[in-house]
Amino acid sequence: MARTQGSHSDITGPRIHKAALKLFAQHGYAAVSMRQIAGEVGVQAGALYNYTPDKQSLLFHLMHGHMDDLLSARAGSKRVKDALENLRQFVGFHIRFHLERPDEVFIAYMELRNLTPENFAAIEALRRTYENDLEGILRDGVAQGVFAVPDTKVATLAVIAMLNGVNTWYRSGGRLSLDQVETIYWDMVRKAVAL
Amino acid sequence: MARTQGSHSDITGPRIHKAALKLFAQHGYAAVSMRQIAGEVGVQAGALYNYTPDKQSLLFHLMHGHMDDLLSARAGSKRVKDALENLRQFVGFHIRFHLERPDEVFIAYMELRNLTPENFAAIEALRRTYENDLEGILRDGVAQGVFAVPDTKVATLAVIAMLNGVNTWYRSGGRLSLDQVETIYWDMVRKAVAL
DNA sequence: CTTCTATATGAACAAATGTTCATATAACGT
DNA sequence: ACGTTATATGAACATTTGTTCATATAGAAG
User: Is residue B185 within 8 Å of B162, Cβ to Cβ?
Assistant: First the structure.
């Protein structure tokens, strides 16, 4: 029986966000219409506006939610004294967290320019928070004399860029297991910052 | 004096491509209209169709041209015996080439999903050619016993991802000179693949 | 000067866009 | 059983979209 008007649906909201996530990741924010999102949910376009004030908010909500998830998941990791161990922990966390959410990650990197200036600033602040986390580890390592990086800011961005790259090619069930991928990347990161 | 109809303009073609390049990089392919491109050139939208059959061709032309430039510039570099030297050459080339063309690079990475399947395949083939170049260097180094990389394919993608990251933050006239940037990245790449 | 051709205009097209709103109705509280 | 309310419809809106085409004209060729 088709969903008819008036029927309650406490799950329509999440379904809209899921549909938007999938479609934005697949075709890009600007290329996806509200009608496509509605169609994916099985509803008319007008109904979307019971759950979001506009299309822009839909995008912002997705990106902000993703960054919140990232930061709170990361906050669950406890720091130890050893900078090398902290770095290893970071690399493993980053790879696994990002590979589990390819669509969110893709959107968070590709759709920044489609945010309004205020929304962009908000997301950027969260991203910087995350980067500062890694930079802190690198600085600690330098202070402890276990890392040799001439510029911690550049090294931070370089490491993150390298790790993000895994999302462009890794497919579960492929040639390499998640553990192997993690080992390979950790090996490169470790050496890259080594003495 | 405003440009009027009928006036010749053997430079309109290049100007259209430049305008499309700038606008696509700034707002994204899907978010830019033919009228915006025409406006940037100072012409009506209809005139664009004297130079391109459609919007998609405009995008494809930009990306294909960029990849051609990349491959022929790279072909100018001569390989030597020493794999480490070849790698250093590659890193320097990549950073400088990409920093000189931020808009083209941005488009080449962000707008892949807006290509038709055939156009996408063509661009991907060119990209793989470039990646194979680096992978060949890494394999040589492994064979020579000067590199330790467990998986040359992954290492190739990791190195390129790391180097591409520089485009997201480097601004000429900023804190670091181009030479410094090159040195820092070369240092990290060298160590990452070292024994 | 005349003819020809390349190039630009500007109006027109159907289709698609984000968003609004009056209307309808299914489920919940009483 | 009944009224209330949250939720969905579907039509409507003003714009904007990519693209086409008849028309006009400036400059090159003769």
Answer: yes
Closest Cα in chain B to A26: B113
- Candidates A113, A161, A181; nearest CB to B27: A113
In chain A, the number of structural domains is: 2
Helix axes A178-193, B178-193, angle to 10 degrees: 130
Percent of chain A with pLDDT over 90: 94
Does A1 have pLDDT greater than 70?
no
Q: Which among A68, A139, A153 has a CA at the least distance from the CA of A108?
A: A68
A118: amino acid identity, one letter = E
Among A91, A111, A115, A154, the residue to mutate for chain B (most B Cβ within 10 A): A154
Does residue B3 lie in a domain region? no
- Is residue A167 in some structural domain? yes
In this complex, the answer to whether residue B6 has its CB under 7 A from any atom of chain D, a nucleic strand, is yes
Q: Which chain D positions have some atom within 7 A of a protein CB? A: 6-12, 16-22, 24-28
pLDDT at B45 over 70: yes
Residue B74 maps to which CATH number? 1.10.357.10
pLDDT value at position A11?
Answer: 85
| Chain B positions touching chain A (beta carbons under 8 Å) | 26-28, 30-31, 110, 113-114, 149-151, 154-155, 157-162, 164-166, 168-169, 176, 181, 183-185, 187-189, 191-194
Write out chain A residues lying below 8 Å of B160, CB-based.
Answer: 165
Name the token pair of A70: 């990232």
Q: CB-CB: which of B158, B184, B194 is closest to A154?
A: B184
| B141 shares a domain with B91 | yes
pLDDT confidence of residue A10: 72
- Shortest distance between the Cα of B106 and any Cα of chain A, in A, equals 10
Ramachandran assignment for B42, one of left (phi > 0), alpha (psi -120 to 50 degrees), beta (any other) = left
Average pLDDT estimate for A35-49: 96
Residues 6+ apart with CB under 8 A from B51: B12, B13, B16
Give the dihedral of Cα atoms B133, B139, B145, B148; nearest 10 deg: 100
Average pLDDT over residues A6-33: 90
Q: What is the mean pLDDT of chain B?
A: 95
Report pTM: 0.93
